[in-house]
Amino acid sequence: MITDFLASGLALSTPILLAALGELLVERAGVLNIGLEGVMLCGAFAAAVAAPSAGGSVAGVAAAALAGLAVALVFGAVVVRLGADQIIVGTAINLLALGGTGALYRAVYGETGTSLVLPTLPRLRVPLLADIPFAGPILFDQHALVFLGLWLVPLLSLFLGRTGLGLRLRSLGDHPRAAASLGLPVQRDRVVVIALAGILAGLAGAALALSSAGTFVEGVTAGRGFVALAVVVFGRWSPWGVLLGSLLFGVASALQFQFQATAIRIPYQVFLMLPYLLTLAALLLPAGVARAPLALGARYERD
Amino acid sequence: MNRALPLLARIAPALLAVATALGLAALVAGFGGRDPGRAVEALLRGSLGSAENVADTIVRAMPLLFTGIAVMLAFRSGIFNIGAEGQFLVGALAAATVATRLGPFPGQALAALIAGVLAGAAWAAVPALFRIRRGVSEVITTILLNFVALYLVSFAVNGPLQEQSRTYPQSDPLPAVAELWRLAPATDDRLHAGIPLALALAVATGALLSRTSLGLRLRAAGLNADAARVAGFPVVRDLALAFALSGAIAGLGGAVELTGVTHRLFEKFSPGYGYTAIAVALLGGLRVPGVVAAALFFAALGAGANLMERSAGVSAVLAVAVQGATLLAVAVMGAPALARWFDRSAEATEPTIPSASSVGATAPPPVPTTEARG
Questions:
Q1: B4-361 is classed CATH 1.10.3470
Q2: Fewest C-beta in 10 Å: which of A51, A54, A191, A220?
Q3: pTM of the predicted model, to two decimals?
Q4: Among B334, B353, B356, whose Cβ lies nearest the Cβ of A297?
Q5: Which residue of A has its CA nearest to B136?
């Protein structure tokens, strides 16, 4: 019972974790992509279109990654190359994705109201480890994207903190002018990071559409992209913090389903609201060593 | 430089918006195997085809106008208020509480509107406090509060404000004394007193910004907060006031929509007016006449899209994509890399969109940090 609950909590937190890890990289490089929700939604839509094909869920995942990449490149080109405002372009991407996927979905599948049934991502059981009591089924009997999210946390933590490339990425977000004066191609590097994050956000969309629910509806992301933005702030721009924040959201959503199923009379909206309130509360805590990247959101123009 | 260019630059976003709307409608219709011509025709007829359709468009424009003016005021004051959605919702929630849980008493409609104003202002005070006291950008906090407001409304209509019969997640209908007066009950009973109120508010906000010393200070802080501070302006106090005013206007919009149009509170009370408002404010060039025109344009699009869905089978949600495409076009045209194409002197008189870099600038420096990760 409790293991099922935690396993579903981990699965529910995966789309948020993947999107938030990408956004974490982008923000550490000094760019704020409010359009994360839209990128995720395009990923989910692409997964829904491709998965019923012969390629199945693998094709769905690949299509989602490509869609995320494509949308992120539009964002990157307009924001980094042309120097348009990040918040406005991000908002535009959200509206475009919501309207575009919604209209295309109806155009392709009609508005009969029957929901789309998609092949789901197969669960991978890690031999032996999955048999560990309690932790085994939670951590080692999940679909591939759950594993990807979990592995990325320590990897990105090491990458950002212990490698030269990680330092280079952080310099883009803290002191882009200093980075440029050292000869680093600030704009190109930022576009690369935005593209990588786009792939992760696309995969987050796939994790949503091809998880146990296996369906796509209009606006299926339902604010999870915004949740991921909040999780980055909650996690103080650190991969481990982002993992903690994502799990919090995942468990809160799992609890919500749990409480809807039972007769316990706590309004489920409380659970939905809780993570947002906790993030606000986290912003009130003393920052310690954590802080927002210094040049986050600032327009960078080449001299 | 060619004198025709600035004018062209100014109306180009509007032309582009209309062209995008019609083009996308035809494209999606064609993609789904429907008749593109019919989709375009339905889009136009549904929004402007008859007096009734025009009235529909005007009524639909009101929530966009309130929130659009709220966003305009914030942006010109250097505040990235992405939270008009939440402020609109809590305005409606407060108004619904006053209208269905108190009274009925004379002047209840007015009381509901005042409740909406106060709730919106209070909701905007939270991100103001975060920015002023903690140096936290309002971009994230306003988004967070949008979701809190959304679930608060959901909780209210499933709990304390749910209708007596407890059938649907919605409030009881408002008593007659809590409804806004009709302007022309004989001809079209949808036109409500909130329409002249919105227009008056739009004009007043424009006058506040361009003709009062407070407006000058707000605009100065929006253009360059450091310079405003050096000039001795009470930047922090003005900033708090601008947040509250912006929230109050959006909150009033929610209260007007409730008392003037829906007469009930329900889940999904706002289909994203507060987000569309960003497109409205920017397409309108952050000026009152432009914002009014942009609100009417997006409302016409929404009204037309409904008919298009019924008669040509093209989903009404396409209207949202057009909002996005328009906003993207406006952002691209305002981008520095393109700005040099346009006449500099004409550009200098245009209101400036606050850049995210100036957003945090009026706040005290973020909490002291050590450079531990350098």
A1: yes
A2: A54
A3: 0.85
A4: B356
A5: A283
